[in-house]
Amino acid sequence: MAISAAAAPASTREKPRLSFWQIWNMSFGFLGIQFGFELQNSNVSRIFETLGANKDDIPILWIAAPVTGLLVQPIIGYLSDRTWSPRFGRRRPFFLIGAILASLALLVMPNSSALWMAGGMLWIMDASINISMEPFRAFVGDKLPSEQRTSGFAMQSFFIGVGSVVAALLPWVFTNWLGMSNTAPAGEIPPSVKWAFYVGAAAFLSSVIYTVVTSTETPPEDMEAFRAENAKVGMWDGLRESFAGIFHMPAAMRQLAVVQFFTWFALFSMWIYATNAVTSNIYNMRVDAPLYQKLKGQITGAPAANANTKELDGLKRDVAEIDKFQADKTDKVISLNMASYAVDKAQLTEQEKATAQRVQQQYNDGADWLSLCSSVRNGVAAVFAFIIPLIAARTSRRRTHMLCLLLGGIGLVSLKFITNPDYIIVSMSLVGIAWASILSMPYAILAGSLPANRMGYYMGVFNFFIVIPQIVAATILGFFTVNVFQGNTLNTLVLGGASMVLAGLLTLRVRDDDDTHVAAVMENPGYDTPVLTNPQA
């Protein structure tokens, strides 16, 4: 099948080197984008569990995120390649539209009153974030010459890291510094989580507006040819071409796709299961056998007045799983849903309710601590983003990416052996090193193998190999967790770690003919000394 836009001439215009502040300005919007993604990744599983989801349901609920990415990213990339506004340029209209929609979604998400509403908002929020994010990737390829691309994507990684640090910290800050509660009645989102989302909405919109206002774009070299090409291709042709792009990838892109598959499979396992794995294995969510049996009896024989049918079904599944996988344990690890039922609806003594309240508190304390550790992970990524170009200049982009992925895989596997929550920071720091590279190296390698007039399109197609592994993970991880790992989500994280190690080893198969780690780059990892250092330049 012919690719219609291939007939458009590739740009022959030499791209000027940009100053530090110009690269800063064009990347700043990623600060807000990552507020949205980090709040989503760190808190959506918590929101789902708070609204009554069983841990086995969470992967299917999460499938909204990769499916929206699969649909939105290549289409937005394709459309942004064919957009030109004299006032806003090519990519910036999409930055702004996505930011407005995502900010509204961030305001609504923590006010979800039912599980179906939270699942629907995840679809909307993820689609909106992708509208902004995908053109940002192409923006670097549009504006920077080859020798500055690594630094351009590293700058994006820096802002992603900073945004993630602050966003992940927000629930902990609101609880420990501002005194907001991190617990709430059954079926309600804690105030600390709600306010984190509100701040994230403001940060998302304001940072993207900053990039839109302070950055410029260069119009197509031949505007008449650009318009003529757009006139030949209709929307249906564009959609068909977008999804056919997977069969027309350059060689380097095909090789990187395999690396991306195993990398993002690992990351998605972490985002889905880290909260449950940490709280149920490293924190004390155990109750003694008499209390468990009393709870079990009331759940399996609960009258309709005590709980709705859907809630009871979830609680009975929790009981069945405990009986199956913890039969030999004296004390039982119960779910947050069971603890909430015990506090609000079960007929228990005050001492027994206090035990259930302790389980609730342990869950929320563990979720908050994991958010803080995620903030450290992202802080490491922000710092390491500036080290990556130096390492790549002295070795190669492939070897740098391999090393970072190996360290990240080791970090995920190490969670299996932690008994003291303090050491989670070390594991997440190793994942942070991988995260810094994941956000920059594949794109720096890829951009050099793509035609300039197809940058947004191919970046969108490339992201199939971010969302496809997430769909696979959402489909099979629930089965593996229950039937292979006996309900222990910590073992699911180990599987994710092994997947990331494999991705690192596969990086050595990738060709990177555009890698120019020469002496000049070693002395200067990408930034020119600007003539004017005005941040608005």
Task: Describe the 3D structure.
By secondary structure, the protein is an all-alpha fold. It is about 70% helix and about 0% strand. The chain has 22 helices and two strands. The protein has a two-stranded antiparallel ribbon. The radius of gyration is 24 Å and the shape is elongated. The N terminus and C terminus are likely disordered.
The proportion of residues forming helix, as a percent range, comes to: over 70%
The outline comes out as elongated
Distance N to C terminus: 44 Å
How much of the residues is beta strand, in percent?
under 5%
Q: Which strands sit side by side, in order, in the main sheet? A: 1-2
**Which structural class matches the secondary elements?**
mainly alpha
Question: What is the rounded Rg?
Answer: 24 Å
Tally of separate helices: 22
- Unreliably modeled segments: 1-10, 517-537
Largest sheet: 2 strands, antiparallel
Number of strands: 2
Mean pLDDT: 85
Element pattern in H and E: HHHHHHHHHHHEHHEHHHHHHHHH
Q: What's the SSE blueprint?
A:
Blueprint: H1 20-27, H2 29-50, H3 58-62, H4 64-81, H5 92-108, H6 115-143, H7 146-176, H8 191-214, H9 223-232, H10 235-244, H11 251-281, E1 286-287, H12 289-300, H13 309-325, E2 332-333, H14 336-344, H15 350-394, H16 397-414, H17 424-438, H18 441-447, H19 455-462, H20 464-483, H21 489-506, H22 519-523
Antiparallel strand pairs: 1-2
Helix pairs in contact: 1-8, 2-5, 2-6, 2-7, 2-8, 2-11, 4-6, 4-10, 4-19, 4-20, 5-6, 5-8, 6-19, 7-8, 7-15, 7-18, 11-15, 11-20, 11-21, 14-15, 15-16, 15-17, 16-17, 16-18, 16-21
